[in-house]
Predict the 3D structure of the following.
Amino acid sequence: MPKSTHYKGLIDRYRDRLPVDSATPIVSLTEGDTPLIKLVNLPSLIGKSVEMYVKFDGQNPTGSFKDRGMTMAVSKAAEKGAKAIVCASTGNTSAAAAAYAARAGMTAFVLIPEGKIPMGKLAQAIAHGAVVLQIRGNFDDGMRLVKEVAEQAPVEIVNSINPFRLQGQKTAAFEIVEALGRAPDYHCIPVGNAGNISGYWIGYSEACGKNTASCTLCNGDCPYLDNPLTTSRPVMVGYQAAGAAPFLRGAPVEAPETVATAIRIGNPQSWDLAQAAVDESEGWFDEVTDEEILTTHSLLASREGIFCEPASAVSVCGAMRDLKNGKIPEGSLVTCTVTGHGLKDTAIAIERAEPVKTVDAELGSVKEAILSHIS
Ligand code: AN7
């Protein structure tokens, strides 16, 4: 009989490196184990020799990296006997919370900024049966309200201020180290609420047996350092959208605005943890404009076959620029997290494109249309 190789999700996979025990009811959608895709066309566009990979976390069950954190947050909520969870969201957290709550038999309450999340994400929250509250405000307003309401109602917060979220998200770094057989030299990542960059840094640190100030769970006494996978950590580079770049301004941004709605966040909750990740790794933050984001969004789809949402293109966009200007040296091994799937936000892809051509349903027209594209 062949041995079963059925992958059962990241908690099962990394149980010995996560704060779960036999009493934790695991709520999983078989998240994690996402592809690390080598870029074959983009590096040559900027004329640089570099080994560059995309960690395509848009291939998680609900189409974003949030599933990694949500399997942990909802499993731990279930362990406590919680009946309801709550989050503020620019869309992906709400989709993940809704799906994992559905599976756990809990109610998910999700606060989203009215008119500012793509239809794909709204459809997910609705389909999975979440109670959707559109607020007349932005993500930061929603986050403040979630913290206030959780003091007065029996609901468990599943935003990334819940430390179990970062524990789940750190597993992406483990997967990258295992896939490459070493840590990358540079890891580039979009930054919104700043949870994911903090989670990756915890993961990369634990993977090489080091503690980090980004981990708040064990107060500097990390139980998961015993079995290192590698010996080094990457330089962490966090990129923000220019209209929502508090790390570049050095202060919260009052009215964040960007086409990358997922990271339309002005007051990141994990500010100190993300800053620690960048400081400890001797990395940096930088910003990219909406135009640059959309250009990379379209290049990834049209040249690499990787369809992501605008916020996810931010990592590759920044990495390409920093390779071009030499801040990331040629010959480096670079990984970029691509956080969410392009099918989440189809409107933006169609809006930017040439109108789709319509032809008569007969051979002459179809042939003419095809030949006009072949020279
Ligand atoms: C595709 O869903 O904050 O810096 O409420 O959806 O960890 O916040 C989404 C964030 C990047 C930024 N890419 O990650 C939410 C939410 C995508 C995202 C980010 C988000 P963090």
User: Anything to note?
Assistant: The CA atoms of residues 87 and 159 lie 5 Å apart.
